[in-house]
Design a protein that fits this description.
This protein is of the alpha/beta class. The protein has five helices and nine strands. Strands 1, 2, 3, 6 and 7 form a five-stranded mixed beta sheet that branches. The protein has a two-stranded parallel ribbon with strand order 4-5. Strands 8-9 form a two-stranded antiparallel sheet. The model has no long low-confidence stretch (mean pLDDT about 75).
């Protein structure tokens, strides 16, 4: 297990390899589809320093922060769920995510000999490793605002580094 503390140095980032297991500690940013375009716009406009957070060496977790905690986003969002049948028809055999699927999606999985697997809930685990949270930008977005949270030993696996992916067949 590699222990990483934010901000992550250039040297530490260069040492990480696909498949490494890590535990993240320190402050990390949380944001997803509603807020990330706004952050990009701030970078483009040169106003990113207005956030009061140095992005160098930072981590961003693609999640919303709610009273229930943090966790990955859902497979039953329209854009995701509507892709399951055509992808299964094209040859995808396993879809991984979270959330309940519609009956017609389940029927399409059966029709095309595919399956859906869920990631076990991690909200309680991550909640127990989160000690502080605050909104640092776009509070009108509620739980999808840009948050800064303090974490202690968040578990993760390096999925891509140095032009390689854990999902490549040759790894």
């Amino acid at each position: 297990m590699i222990e990483l503390t934010t901000p992550i140095s250039e040297e530490d980032a260069a040492k990480l390899q696909v498949g490494d297991t890590v535990e993240l500690s320190g402050y990390i940013l949380c944001g997803r589809d509603a807020v990330l375009p706004r952050v990009i716009k701030m970078i483009e406009e040169g106003t990113i320093d207005d956030l009061g957070v140095d992005l160098r060496g930072q981590v961003i977790f693609h999640t919303a922060v709610s009273p229930a905690g943090v966790g990955p986003t859902s497979s039953n969002k329209l854009e995701i769920e509507s892709s399951i049948a055509p992808l299964s028809k094209a040859g995808i055999r396993l879809h991984l995510g979270k959330g309940r699927l519609k009956q017609e999606t389940i029927a399409a999985l059966e029709q095309y000999n595919a399956v859906y697997a869920v990631i076990p809930p991690v909200t309680a685990l991550l909640g127990s490793k989160t000690s502080e949270e605050k909104v640092i930008a776009f509070p009108e977005l509620g739980m999808e605002a840009l948050h800064l949270i303090k974490v202690d030993k968040y578990p993760a696996i390096i999925g891509a580094a140095h032009g390689r992916s854990i999902y490549d067949q040759d790894i």
